[in-house]
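Progress report, Aim 2. The chain analyzed during this reporting quarter is listed below.
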Amino acid sequence: MKTLHRNKRLKSATEWVKSYSGKRIVHGYAKRYGVDKLCAVKELRLIGIEISEEYENQLRQSIEALKKQRQFRKDKKEQELDSLLRFNSDENFAFIAGYTSGGFPYGITHEEMEEIDKNELA
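Predicted structure tokens for the chain:
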């Protein structure tokens, strides 16, 4: 659904508010007009609805906490991916899977890795 421009939203909202029967007007406005909750607070105030500063501050804190949480998850996923992609290699092996009890490496040689890459591209 395409959202209305602010002027049209405000005109429509004055009528919508009169018929709104819910208890969470900011949430209802945001959902109805496809705007975020901070925009809803601002626009509801423009049409004369009283929204407390405390509620707005809680909303800002909640949004900031959600952003931090999402960034944390994103960073964690990137770290996990980096650790999966990081592997040991040397002049003989492109990928060292492990070491024998005698301390010798085993894994995939550079030649085997080239063959695998060729087969994947084919």
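Residues 87-121 form one domain. The chain has a mean pLDDT of 90. These observations will guide the mutagenesis work planned for the next reporting period.
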